[in-house]
Amino acid sequence: MERNEKPIVYVDTHIVTRMVAGKLNDLSQKAIELLDNGNLFYSPMVELELHYLYERNRIPCTPDEILSYLPT
Q: Fewest CB atoms within 10 A around its CB: which of 4, 17, 37, 69?
């Protein structure tokens, strides 16, 4: 990987929901830098878990709304 390329960062459901809520304060500085500067990817399981959380009224937004907040 060249120095100017963005790192690939795989995020899980926990990190996705925290990113959307703006609650990343207790993550390390390195983790925050990777989330801010990396190419973010998530598995289809994240979307499935978000559907479950939405159906159980644990999150207020639909999975599509949440995932649309992620940088592309």
A: 4
Residue 14: name the closest of 71, 72, 66 by CA.
66
Q: What is the pTM of this model?
A: 0.82
pLDDT digits (tens, 9 = 90+) for 13-43: 999 999 988 999 999 999 999 999 999 999 9
Could you tell me the CA-to-CA distances from 51 to 5, 44, 54 in Å, in that order? 33, 11, 5
Task: Give the up-direction half-sphere exposure of residue 40: CA atoms within 13 A in the CB hemisphere.
Answer: 20
DSSP SS3 for 9: strand
